[in-house]
Amino acid sequence: MSRCHGCGRPIQWVETMRGKRMPIDPEPRDDGNIILLTGYTSVGPTMARRAKVIRAGEHLGETHYATHLATCPVRNRKQAS
Which residues pair with 42 in a beta bridge? Predict the structure, then answer.
């Protein structure tokens, strides 16, 4: 597990469905809009968890996560300035 360079909180790197890396908060969130699926990565035949962004109300009963880009207090403070 890594840490955010801005706020120091733990982050987990996952791959999106389009093959991009995305940091997520490792703790599940009721208001999260990301679910993790197990599948092959774009880098090779390695199984990994992939992030899928969902709409509100989709995939009820599954564990939801949030991208750290939306929850990082340092990043959000800079954007508000």
Answer: none
